[in-house]
Amino acid sequence: MASIRHVLPTRENCRRDVRVKNILVVGGAGYIGSHTCLDLHDKGYRPVVYDNLSNGHREFVQWGPFEEGDIRDTDRLEAVLARHSPDVIVHFAASIEVGESTRDPIGFYENNVAGTISLLGAARKAGIDRLVFSSTCATYGEPQSVPMSEEHRQVPVNPYGRSKLMIEEMLKDAGRYLGMRSVVLRYFNAAGADPEGRIGEWHEPETHAVPIAIEAALGQRDGFFINGRDYDTPDGTCVRDFVHVMDLADAHSRAVRHLIEGGESLSLNLGTGQGTTVRQLVDTVRRMSGREFPVETRGRRDGDAAALVADNSRAKEALGWSPRFGLEEIVASALEWHRSRLGGEANAMPPA
Ligand SMILES: NC(=O)c1ccc[n+]([C@@H]2O[C@H](COP(=O)([O-])OP(=O)(O)OC[C@H]3O[C@@H](n4cnc5c(N)ncnc54)[C@H](O)[C@@H]3O)[C@@H](O)[C@H]2O)c1
Ligand SMILES: O=c1ccn([C@@H]2O[C@H](COP(=O)(O)OP(=O)(O)O[C@H]3O[C@H](CO)[C@@H](O)[C@H](O)[C@H]3O)[C@@H](O)[C@H]2O)c(=O)[nH]1
Known about the structure:
Layout: H1 4-7, H2 11-15, E1 22-26, H3 31-42, E2 46-51, E3 66-68, H4 74-84, E4 88-91, H5 98-103, H6 105-126, E5 130-136, H7 159-178, E6 181-187, E7 189-191, H8 209-217, E8 224-227, E9 239-240, E10 242-244, H9 245-260, E11 266-270, E12 276-277, H10 278-289, E13 295-298, E14 307-308, H11 313-319, H12 327-342, H13 344-347
The structure holds nicotinamide-adenine-dinucleotide (NAD) and uridine-5'-diphosphate-glucose.
Uridine-5'-diphosphate-glucose is lined by residues 96, 98, 136-138, 188-189, 207-209, 212, 225-227, 238, 240, 278, 301, 304, 308.
């Protein structure tokens, strides 16, 4: 298989057709936001990060200026917008953990919905009417059919998904009545890391399947617990559509360009269209890391859908986007990132 580095766009081949513009990346010190800054920079944009560092990392801000602030602080946002005059806002900032949303629903609506109202107000005042928004396949709720197209009904089953759907509805009204154009990107399961190992997935606490399996392989956890093996799927474990974070980043840069070029508002799924069971994921991590680790089964996790796989044809058509990487590249890049973070600790471990 070709090295991941060989298919990444270079600064040179993308600069030719994109003028340098400021892009405000809200939540850009986080996982997907920082990879998007890397991609925007490589394509000739200047990403300005606005983040309160509640879940992000200062050291992930490497490709443009950093403005520390909270999206609920409208005055601070207005000052930053006035200073940088961005052409487009890319909005990642949110509380993201589904389980936490059931324990603290009001906190989720406060950060995600009230925070976005504050951001939209500041953007309107600054005359910025182009926005790319991080949504999620969790807005669909229980799948009626797989793969899921954008026409699938949206009936989220947890406060996290509902908060994202509320924002999608607000953006529709901002488009209808205020002329704001937006690209809503509904990600499936983001995973993987910058192939050069500069940034990667780093959530605290970590709840996502890929980094947890890798931490188990690197001896940072006792093992991996599969949440339920009694689903109606090929091996009884949940099916997910893992999409490489660099492919997501590429889609954001394309969405930015679409808006700058006058394109209409869009809602798009971002996934590969390929389903992977949790068991297959764990086996791939074992094989690629060369390390066995204990795998046990526990009960189902509340709110988990059996299978979530994207129909990505609309994103392909509207943005000319296509996922370039599969599960092996996801696991390889994530392994590299985790190993580089652990340094000698990972290398010192005896093979299992
Ligand atoms: N990770 C996934 O698989 C996935 C899937 C679907 C959708 N999403 C969405 O993508 C976006 C990014 O997810 P991520 O995995 O990179 O999460 P992340 O937590 O790594 O990034 C979110 C960033 O937003 C910042 N932030 C949060 N609240 C803020 C506030 N009030 N003001 C300023 N900054 C704030 C955090 O500090 C963090 O840096 C989120 O909106 C999430 O809902 C993620
Ligand atoms: O230790 C673990 C962790 C996860 N899983 C399972 O692995 C699958 C994937 O889980 P996870 O990586 O936590 O992702 P999701 O719960 O599918 O949620 C992610 O993907 C959603 C879109 O599918 C986004 O909306 C969310 O923000 C994002 O966290 C699920 O079946 C989990 O139950 C395990 O079995 N064991």
